[in-house]
Amino acid sequence: MEKSLDLINARIRDGSARVVTAEEMPGIVDELGEEGALAEVDVVTTGTFGAMCSTGAFFNFGHADPPIRMERVWLNDVEAYAGIAAVDAYLGATQEAESKDDLYGGAHVLEELVAGGTVELRATSHGTDCYPRRSITTELLLDDMNQAVMVNPRNAFQCYNAASNAADRTLNTYMGTLLPRCGNVSYSGAGTLSPLANDPGFRVIGSGVPIFLAGGEGMIVGEGTQHSAGGGFGNLMVSGDMKQMRQEFLRAAVMNGYGVTMYVGVGIPIPVLDTGIVRSTAVRDEDILTDIIDFGTPRRDRPSLAKVSYADLKSGSVEIGGETVRTSSLSSYRRARAVAQELKGWIEAGKMELALPTRRIDPAKRVRAMRETAVTPRVRDIMNRQVINITEDEEVRVAAKRLLKDEMNHLPVLDRNGALVGIITTYDVSKAVVTDGRLRQVKDIMTRNVIKTTPDEPVDVAAQKLEQNNISALPVVDAANRVVGILSAIDLGKLFGGRRRR
Amino acid sequence: MKLRLAFSRKGKTDPGREPVIARVVKETGVLINVEKANIDSMAGEVLIDVPDRDADLVRRCLEEMGVTVRAMENAVIRDEEECVDCGACISVCPQEVFSFDAEWRLCVSAERCVLCGKCIQACPHGALSQQG
């Protein structure tokens, strides 16, 4: 048997839809069997409430008179990204205030707005003909904004690694306080109630699907940044109108020694269309496994200390290497339940109808590590890109002028096609002057056997060329032998004091 | 019950120069558990745990010796508006002060607290504080 979404929506409209939370579903399936549960249940609601750093909102403040094209924007002294249209900005939850003594950040501003408080908007501009104003300070309520659209690039992780610490000192991490020598375990996620754990194949969770977001109606934009469902770490980009949100489900937080973050409530309704969905929504804490990762290893690939289920984690203690270690959650299961319950109420009351994805999310995608270029600096990182050239047919006098004007000691020499054919130095020019002016042209005095380097060459190798040839600069050429820069002994100084290009 | 003792060590006759805890144990016969002690050259602060029924007796005895005694009833205070029942405090506490009830509501057994302060730092919501 299968059930259509239209049938489910018709039942929602006439108030006869049977809606249960994901916590209730396993028991129903045990009692009625899969076919029975499919006949009985129309919608399963999920919920999670936990720290989601990747949270923020777009604002449109409206135009002032005279108008301003905001280039830098602060809300309660927390900088928002203003590299968009004139009176728009995006405030990220983890951005921290510039002057406050206590940790205060974007998350606090977002919570303040949702709670109905005023925030101070400060903006600056260089002033244009169309937007003459250069600065503005004003107090705003959420209601004063034309739009306040929450767009969270990475929310509602499918599951999350638990954390412990085998090192000898206490660590303050985004997973909370981790006591030394595996003194505790910290975990996050709602287990059986977790939205994506109830549809790991992304069959009905995808773009355009309506959701509960921080107390208001939102929707799924698509896969979240760093989505890695193939490895069990899928996540979602979600969006919603902040004006509908409530403080109960949007709370600023500070992780000691780490920084500001935001607790967000997310709930997704799952239409029970077939027995496949019955099975996936019957998931229990026991079925959801995660690794306890050792944060004592300060590397990207940290070792796993144990594999456990959410049932183990929620029991209050787990075994690591034969010892019992206490666990605690960072996310709130009580409030995750409140999310799923409220969403259930909305659907029972006909306040929200369901929709199928307008675009599917890839359930097999895996995240890749960052492509890192070599740790050792390359010539391109420190070379001087403003190269003064000369062509081989020019007079020596022109070369002398050019060297003087730019206070350079080296002048790469190009042929008519722009390829490097030689180099002259102030020494070469002086020598030409001394020899009675018989040598008139650059090509008469240039060094043709040029010692050169490439942008990709490690600086260490280039420095060795300078030293071994007793010279003080190397032209930097591309594959076509065109000069793209010059590396002088002076540039090597950029390696110290952090002045090299990144 | 937990009692917080404070005494001076400045003068030769100050209680901080005397073996006050040992003397109370000897005189009253009450078994005292010292949970935290911070004693320097000028003053001392000690947190002790005694059976509830003997608390008054111990208190009187200590006060006679010049020790200031304060009963710790709500050593750690939870702000219910700020708390979201996440449980980040549970596993960092050496005294098992925090736990969940059947409804995943955070429960605080403040009488077990030894004022180490770990939970206050670990709470992401600034919901925990220590009695003055």
UniProtKB/TrEMBL annotation, chain A:
Full protein name: CBS domain-containing protein
Gene3D superfamilies tied to this protein: CBS-domain (3.10.580.10)
Residues annotated as domain CBS: 383-442, 446-502
Keywords of this entry: Amino-acid biosynthesis, CBS domain, Methionine biosynthesis
Organism: Methanoculleus methanifontis
Membrane-traversing stretches: none
UniProt cross-references to InterPro entries, sorted A to Z: CBS_dom (IPR000644), CBS_dom_sf (IPR046342), Diverse_CBS-Domain (IPR051257), HcyBio (IPR002708), MA1821-like (IPR016426)
Pfam families for this protein: CBS, HcyBio
From TrEMBL, chain B:
Domain 4Fe-4S ferredoxin-type: 74-103, 104-132
Keyword entries, A-Z: 4Fe-4S, Iron, Iron-sulfur, Metal-binding
InterPro entries: 4Fe4S_Fe-S-bd, 4Fe4S_Fe_S_CS, ACT-like_dom_sf, PSI_iron-sulfur_center
Pfam families membership: Fer4_7 (PF12838)
PANTHER family to which the protein is assigned, alphabetical: PHOTOSYSTEM I IRON-SULFUR CENTER, PHOTOSYSTEM I IRON-SULFUR CENTER-RELATED
Name of this chain's protein: 4Fe-4S dicluster domain-containing protein
Organism: Methanoculleus methanifontis
